[in-house]
Amino acid sequence: MVGVRRVAFVVAAVLLLFGEPWSVLVLLPDWPVAGTVVGTVVFGVAALSFPVLMVLGHGPKQSDAAARIGDVTLGTIWVLFTWSVLTHVLRLVLLVSGVDDPARPRIVAAATLAVAAVLLVSGNRIAMRVPPVKAVDVVLPKLGPGLDGLRVAVITDTHYGPLDRTRWSERLVAELNRLQPDVVCHAGDLADGSVAKRRKQVDPLGGVQAPLGRFYITGNHEYFGEAQAWLDHMASLGWDTLHNRSTLIERDGARLLFAGIDDPTGAASGLPGHGPDLAAALDGSDPEVPVVLLAHQPKQVAQAREENVDLQISGHTHGGQIWPFHLLVRLDQPTLSGLTQHGPTQLYNSRGSGFWGPPFRVFAPNEIALLTLRSA
């Protein structure tokens, strides 16, 4: 029964995603018969092949070629669907203005295509660029003067995957080193796929320079593949893997604890010892020493606030990645991006440095966060 419901949901979603743009771009404009037939065939072939491409690309076989086509299709149809719905407002405006058929639906179709094309081209450029730096000051009342001004660079959600972004990875590292941070953190969702398939893209991270520490935790996507293998590989690159553990840093007599916990999906992964364990991560910590916690999902702040964690750093949301997907993200997470207060705990949620799946970011730019920690 569960399998039947899942298939029914997928069929309904595909029909809706492809059917709405088809009606706006092909059916309603009343094109000549040849144009209507060609447009219908294009949408039909895309709708039928899309689920197959996604299963081949992101299922057990992990065909990178299928994933690349399926991901571009997903991003394109999502933007077309969104703006096909929104341009119904334009249809009403044209109707009230006295614009007659067949001009009215053809104007709407042209506007939909034009907006989608602009957003997809600009969205791809944003997704593929080296992220701009977002500088934020964070006051930690318990932070000692010796660590005042500590610079923490945050990357997350790099999602190295079917597109070979080795060169992008090298440029990302160069930008991080240009910032000369004291600490660099990767807050999870490092890569999609096995170490064997993605290590070429990940290995440049071994060149990141941070004198007081480089810290990495798992995200949910690591648990779709080889979470422990990725922890081991990042450790081999010289990163401190905070797998439900912590590391103390000191400067000029001031101390700061960097702790990290697994993503919640680790609890159901079947891997021994995986799953978030904040108690273990903070075991033996001094209550007078401020704590910076790496936890991939923002909603993990519910546990952090119970333990009076000073600052949680997260990712996961991508800021929605492709507008208006952020509306669905907000149903599951307490925040999309930026610095927010949750009881005694501050939460910095990064929009992420890379992207998952569709190589587009629409109204959700990527970032390298540069957090400057200040004492009270």
From TrEMBL:
Residues 150-319 form the Calcineurin-like phosphoesterase domain. Pfam families: Metallophos. Keywords: Hydrolase, Membrane, Metal-binding, Transmembrane, Transmembrane helix. The chain crosses the membrane at residues 33-56, 77-97, 103-121. Gene3D superfamilies: 3.60.21.10. InterPro entries: Calcineurin-like_PHP, Metallo-depent_PP-like, Metallophosphoesterase_sf. This is Metallophosphoesterase. It comes from Amycolatopsis albidoflavus.
